[in-house]
Design goal:
Strand 9 and strand 10 form a beta hairpin. The strands form three sheets. A five-stranded mixed sheet has the order 6-10-9-7-8, with helices on both faces. A three-stranded parallel sheet has the order 1-2-3. The chain is globular, with a radius of gyration of 24 Å. By secondary structure, the chain is an alpha/beta fold. The longest helix has 21 residues, at 89-109. It has 18 helices and ten strands.
């Protein structure tokens, strides 16, 4: 399967300046760049979709230049409905270090196994490295004079912010697209990069670079975007960095923006039949024939949720490696087996489970344990769970707030667990 065919098959095609996707297969310069701002200390599965698109290009021989926005992160990508809060330089630097590791892991290491292609040298860049020495007047003379205000005013986010009922927009956020456009120009000049990959919501900002390259270098450049992933059941975007985001970090980097490997696996396992086919194509490295086989068997016995299990394993393998994917798959099979007797788990088994489940020391009461392990948001909610019969202790339903003085496994609802040891 050629690159253009795989991109279309996996759904990695939205707006683009490339008229014929097949041109990607014979493109003379096989270099691209993709960027992420350090707005948090972890990427989400929304970012992961774009990274999986990047990995697709890499599998077909393209050389990746991956940008972490140390400069743009100090301003913030303009939102549709209001200004972003400025982050401290220390926070931006911390976030950069965290997400750089995640980007490298997905692109360069992927599923942790030897692949049948050679990954080109991965070049990581930070736009702060070139913006820190740029003179403001020089920037206005070279970039500002070659960028039309009409182009900016026509952008949808600007229209929303300055139109009737809009919240207004600061000069800093208004200028964001010029900074991003300059990134593309810089990478073209320094490395010969003439293709930018992005999510569909960034397409407008990315075309700014095309305009500058044409005006200042008299050269052509292109943008290829991938659609935002939308849940067909809820109609909401996947992996937003607000609310109940699914993070790529599995441990806390300091801000609470993480999703445990077990919860990451369970998220994919819980996807609907309506969504699972597209998600298999986007978030796993399974070949088309493998996906077709899985979906065929799934349709024959949908109650077995074979497609969801393949998705959960495949996506976890990409982000956290094969060893962790196998471990949480086995753990999940054990916890949800009809033959499992929770009262018979040995202390060694519970210790093994604790590598992937929240752990609390013995001696605390059930209500405090539920709050400490995150199984309940508050003591009030924890007491409600008890009253509803939603809590069990090593297989026995608990209706009162009692102390737990022995090694045990606590279950809340259908798929939330914690270990007391």
């Amino acid at each position: 399967m050629k690159l253009s065919e795989e991109l279309i098959y996996r759904g990695f095609m939205a707006e683009t300046t490339i008229k014929n996707p097949a041109d990607l297969d014979t493109r003379e310069s096989k270099k691209f760049y993709w960027g992420a701002d350090p707005s948090a200390d972890s990427l989400t599965i929304g970012n992961l979709a774009a990274l999986m698109m990047c990995a697709c290009f890499v599998r077909h021989g393209y050389e990746p230049y991956l940008l972490v926005g140390g400069a743009t992160g100090q301003i913030g990508d303009p939102k549709e409905n209001g200004e972003r809060d400025l982050k401290s330089i220390e926070e931006v630097n911390h976030n950069k270090d965290c997400i750089r590791i995640q980007i490298e892991k997905v692109i360069n290491a992927g599923d942790g196994e030897v692949r049948d292609y050679v990954t080109p040298n991965l070049t990581m860049v930070d736009n702060y490295d070139w913006f820190k020495n740029i003179n403001f007047l020089s920037f206005l003379r070279e970039i500002g004079k070659n960028f039309s205000m009409t182009q900016l005013l026509d952008r949808q986010f600007v229209q929303n912010r300055i139109g009737n009922g809009g919240s207004g927009i600061s000069y800093a956020e208004f200028s964001y697209t010029l900074i991003q456009g300059y990134d593309f120009l810089h990478l073209y000049r320094e490395y010969g990069v003439a293709l930018q990959l992005c999510g569909a919501d960034q397409y407008g900002n990315c075309t700014s670079g095309i305009h500058l390259i044409k005006r200042l270098e008299d050269a052509d450049a292109d943008v290829w975007s991938t659609p935002l992933v939308i849940d067909p059941v809820t109609g909401k975007k996947f992996g937003k960095s607000e609310g109940n985001a699914i993070w790529l970090a599995s441990t806390d980097n300091g801000s609470g923006n993480y999703t445990s490997i077990y919860d990451f696996y369970q998220f994919w396992l819980g996807q609907s039949d309506a969504a699972v086919e597209n998600l298999l194509k986007i978030y796993t490295l399974l070949e088309p024939a493998e996906i077709d086989d899985i979906l065929s068997r799934h349709r024959e016995n949908p109650e077995l949720r074979l497609a969801q299990k393949a998705l959960a394993y495949g996506a976890t393998k990409v982000v956290h490696g094969a060893g962790n994917a196998e471990a949480v798959e086995n753990l999940s099979n054990t916890l949800f087996s009809k033959d499992t007797d929770f009262s018979e788990f040995s202390e060694d088994e519970l210790t093994e489970f604790s590598a992937y489940l929240p752990v609390v020391a013995r001696g605390a009461n059930i209500v405090d344990i539920l709050v400490t392990t995150g199984l309940a948001d508050s003591k009030k909610k924890a007491r409600e769970f008890l009253a509803q019969g939603a809590i069990s202790l090593s297989g026995t339903k608990i209706l009162e707030d009692i102390p737990v003085n022995q090694t045990a496994i606590i279950k809340k609802g259908k798929n939330k667990f914690a270990i007391v040891k």
